[in-house]
Amino acid sequence: MKTSAVYDRTKKEPFFETDRCYFRSLRDKIALKKMVTKFRSKWELECHLIPKYQKYLNKPSKAPIEVKWIDPVMGHGVFATAPIKKGTFICEYTGLITNEDLIESDNRYIFNLTVGDDETGYVIDARYSGNVARRINHSSKPNLESITLFIEGLPRVLYIANRDIKKNEQLFVDYGEEYWHQWTPSED
Known about the structure:
Blueprint: E1 2-3, E2 16-17, E3 22-23, H1 26-38, H2 40-43, H3 50-53, E4 65-71, E5 75-80, E6 89-93, E7 96-99, E8 110-115, E9 118-125, E10 129-130, E11 137-138, E12 144-151, E13 154-161, E14 172-173, H4 177-183
C-alpha cells in the first residue's frame, strides 16, 4: 500500500497506524462477545465468507490503492492505482473497539457494529489508530461494500469491491443514514 506524504500532516492529534482491531478493555471484549452470541442466527448466513477473506485479516492491504489529498473540505481520499475486480478484498476497518458511549461527540472516524439490524452499543474507533479504511469517503453510489463477519464471536469489518473499479477512480462506501443524521444540522 502506498500512502502520500501528506497522510497525517493535517491532523494535530497523535495517530497509530494499525492493521488490526483491539479492545479498550477485556470487559468490553467479553461483553461484545456475549452480545454477538445472542444474535448468532442473524450472522451465520455470512459465515461462508470467512474462509474466502480470513487470510487478509490483520495484514496491510495488498489492493492497488493509495491515499491522496483532495481538498480542505473532503480531506484525503483513497484511489485505485490499477484496475480492481469486483469481489476484491480492499481492507479491513481497524481501530479501537469500544463502547459507543465513550466516543467524543466530534469523532467522525467510527464504524457502528451491528448484528443484522440490531445495534451492539459498540463501535470501531479509528480516530487515533486505524488504517487506510478511515480515509475512504462516502457516496450514495459506492464502489465498495462493507461486510461484517464474526470470527470467534468478534466482529471484523471488511471493505470489498462491489463492482469493477477503474484505475485512478476514488473508492467510496455508503456511510449509512445514521451517520448523516448525526452530522447534518437540524432545521429546527
